[in-house]
Design brief:
By secondary structure, this protein is an alpha/beta fold. It contains 16 helices and 15 strands. The protein has helices spanning 2-9, 41-49, 71-81, 119-131, 142-155, 160-163, 202-211, 229-238, 248-251, 261-269, 300-304, 332-341, 362-370, 395-400, 406-418, 420-430, and strands at 91-96, 108-109, 158-159, 170-171, 174-178, 198-199, 216-218, 220-221, 243-246, 273-277, 308-312, 319-322, 328-331, 349-352, 378-379. The strands form 5 sheets. Strands 8-9-10-11-14-15 form a 6-stranded parallel β-sheet. A 3-stranded parallel β-sheet has the order 1-5-7. Strands 2-6 form a two-stranded antiparallel ribbon. Strand 10 (273-277), helix 11 and strand 11 (308-312) form a beta-alpha-beta unit. Helix 8 (229-238) packs parallel to helix 10 and helix 15 (406-418) runs antiparallel to helix 16 (420-430). The radius of gyration is 21 Å and the shape is globular. 49% of the residues are buried.
Length: 459
């Protein structure tokens, strides 16, 4: 009954923020998942695969205001991570929000994530929930636990005294909150709940950004198949949103569809930019799922309309048809690089570095590091909470590829136990190519060629 009610509560009206009453401040909860002595073997596996954190982010300063990190780790943060980057300037372009909708957020997760009839989907949901320290993802507190944990990670990002001994407390940057639109019927423009793996309304991102303007920037997500897509873009712009997220593989749209030209023209007219998943995605595959739609070459139609696009993850996973050359199967990363090298798309096409340190993406990461011509077209993203899953990033693999030293590996492992957001920034700052190439500090800031977020009366 609760799941049926959640489906009925999914936001379907065409007026943003109308009757949207979900509030976070008066509902914040805290507390990490913990293993009890009589936990099941499934719970044990989930805990080990998920976050498996030893400390809370608040523990980065004790009651006396002293940081418990080892002197070596503090030195690396001071001399190699933040020596030319103020943490307050960091902008994370890729942070997911999600929930079950039981508390009124109108979020939705496919029913198969809640039942052992689909064991892989159920286990996947449990692992990612544990990484986000959500103990009740299928109960009424799931939404609150998820965002509460994220807020605590941000507010306790890094002790200011490590960077400047005259400062106290914590400092942090800003984080873009990604909603996630549903699958829509291409003919009727109506929402298809059964094919939707996950749904997060635009209202949720906007509401959180309004409640925590010092932490968050709102982002939009609009499926072009919906009958009111252009109206929603207008309304998002009025609320200060300048980025629109697509994950074609799970949302069921082909970016090369010529019927999307009016959508692209509206994006350009409103001076927005699109954040589009590139390459394969096998996380959200409970409903519609077609990895051929992650082909970077399908973005040409939008680019030729003048739209600016950030390709999520630099399309660094999976294979796709090379539609320029007899449809042979080619790594998506290779196709993305081809687009990046085309002169006409310079200043239009970018890549975000979210999840780029994941085990299966490391070889492509090394190539990005060493191709310095790409660096001024990259933006920072963490892909929270994916990088908080313990088994996603292996620092030992980064060390084997020569991208970090053994000493840096030890320090990164220590940081992960306290704050996965700090770990991700530190990891990407320490990376180096075979010739000593490093990602520039400006990559972690708001990109100068990307439209700035519009201000609204809430700001």
């Amino acid at each position: 009954i609760l799941r049926l009610q959640r489906r009925l509560n999914m936001a379907t009206n065409s007026s943003l923020m109308k009757n949207y009453n979900f509030r976070i401040r008066e509902n914040c909860l805290s507390g990490p998942p913990s293993l009890t002595s009589n936990c099941s073997w499934v719970e044990y596996i989930v805990f080990k695969l998920g976050g498996n954190f030893s400390y809370e982010p608040e523990d980065l300063l004790d009651n006396e205001g002293v940081c418990p990190l080892s002197p070596a780790t503090q030195q690396i943060l001071r001399e190699k991570v933040f020596h030319d980057l103020d943490p307050r300037d960091i902008v994370d372009y890729h942070c997911h929000i999600m929930g079950n909708g039981f508390t009124g957020s109108q979020c939705y997760m496919h029913d198969c994530y809640y039942t052992w009839r689909y064991p892989l989907q159920k286990l996947k949901a449990m692992v990612f929930s544990n990484a986000a320290q959500v103990t009740d993802y299928d109960d009424k507190f799931g939404d609150i636990q998820y965002i509460s944990r994220f807020i605590r990670l941000i507010k306790h990002f890094v002790p200011a005294g490590i960077i400047n001994p005259s400062m106290t407390g914590f400092i942090h940057g800003r984080y873009n909150l990604l909603p996630f639109d549903a699958v829509y019927d291409a003919v009727t423009g109506e929402q298809d709940v059964n094919l939707t793996s996950m749904y997060v309304p635009n209202e949720y991102s906007i509401q959180l950004a309004n409640e925590f303007p010092e932490l968050f920037n709102p982002v939009g997500s609009v499926n072009p198949h919906r009958h009111d897509a252009l109206d929603i873009l207008e309304q998002l712009s009025q609320h200060g949103v300048n980025i629109v997220l697509w994950l074609p593989n799970a949302m069921g749209m082909d970016p090369s569809d010529e019927t999307f030209v009016p959508f692209y023209n509206k994006i350009k007219e409103l001076d927005m930019i699109m954040l589009v998943h590139g390459g394969s995605d096998n996380i959200l595959n409970a409903g519609f799922h077609d990895n051929s739609l992650g082909n970077p070459l399908l973005l040409r139609r939008a680019l030729d309309c003048g739209v600016k696009i950030i390709t999520a993850h630099c399309a660094s996973a999976g294979y796709a048809a090379d539609i320029d050359n007899d449809n042979r199967s080619v790594p998506c990363f290779e196709l993305w690089l081809r687009l990046m090298k085309e002169e006409k798309y310079k200043g239009q096409l970018f890549g975000d570095m979210s999840q780029i340190c994941a085990v299966h993406r490391v070889p492509n990461l090394k190539q990005i590091l060493e191709d310095t011509e790409l660096h001024d077209r990259l933006v920072y993203g963490s892909d929270y909470p994916i990088h908080a899953v313990n088994v996603v990033v292996h620092t030992s693999r980064l060390q084997r590829f020569g991208m970090i030293t053994s000493e840096e590996k030890v320090c990164l492992d220590e940081l992960f136990q306290y704050n996965c957001l700090l770990f991700d920034v530190a990891c990407k700052r320490l990376l180096r190519g075979s010739g000593g190439e490093k990602l520039p500090a400006d990559m972690f800031k708001n990109h100068s060629l990307i439209p700035a977020r519009k201000t609204t009366p809430h700001d």
